[in-house]
Design goal:
Blueprint: E1 3-5, E2 11-13, H1 17-22, H2 26-34, H3 36-43, E3 52-54, E4 57-59, H4 78-90, H5 95-104, H6 111-132, E5 139-149, E6 152-160, E7 166-172, H7 177-190, E8 196-199, H8 203-211, E9 219-222, H9 231-236, H10 238-246, H11 253-269, H12 279-300
Parallel strand pairs: 5-8, 8-9
Antiparallel strand pairs: 1-2, 3-4, 5-6, 6-7
Amino acid sequence: MNTATCGGAAGVWQNGDRAVAANLNPGRRRWFLTSLHVMEKAAGTRRRDLTERRSGNLMPVGWWAVTDRKPYRHRFPLSVIGYALWLYHRFLLSQRDVQELLHERGIRVSHETLRQRNIKFAPLLTEELRHREPRWGSRWHLDERCVQIAGVKHWLWRAVDEHGNVLVHLLQEHRDTEAAKSFFVRLLGQHNVPKVIHTDKLWSYGAVLRELPVLHVVEHIRVVSTARCNTIVEQSHRPTRQQERAQLGFKRRQRTQELLALHARVSNLHRHTRTTTPAALRRSDQTTALLLWQEVLQQAV
């Protein structure tokens, strides 16, 4: 398997692309093959120094491929805004943590500014990432968990595929048939009808599956919650709980929905392959994810 160095940066695949894609799951394979043109554009770009002074600010390493144009009425260029958003949604940090990391790089910004930029750009980035995602697996794992928003109990309905990629999540105040139907309507509006659906023994799932004709041909497998068999969707709830603790609880429903939506898309973007794969393949996967994020940032903002 041959690789070429991109100006001293991470390697870019030249030969053996099909062989690399053969080791990935179907969804990641399509994503890898469609993103090769993005990596080829960065192959001829020279690598800059560890940090570069621009307008009195030190630019982070790895974001030199992003254009430094400034969005309208914004003080910082697009590379800084994208880097702050990426840190916040990739590593489950608080706004003050991101502020401290940017300050260490010579970028002086308040946590309130970061919060406002996240509110403004999160829906745009979420929609752009959603349109670029490949077609995920045909086995759905559905579950719901309780979330406190400003002291009011809400239910977070979540669907993941067999590879752990988040398909859809929806915050609702109830856990009845109407809430389950709204969840399935959004799920079917963004994805094709699956072959198998795994749920717990909540009766609302069965009622909706009997009510919607398009789901009559789908195999429905009910999992006993106490047996801990539905581990894929249970594990997908862990980042949500970590983010809730980092923020000391969620405050607003709409902001929470937007935050979790972008976090899920970034998580799908950076979902690494199994640890048994070679290190070069994992690094290539990470490089592809970063380049796709840069492409999305330029298109959405």
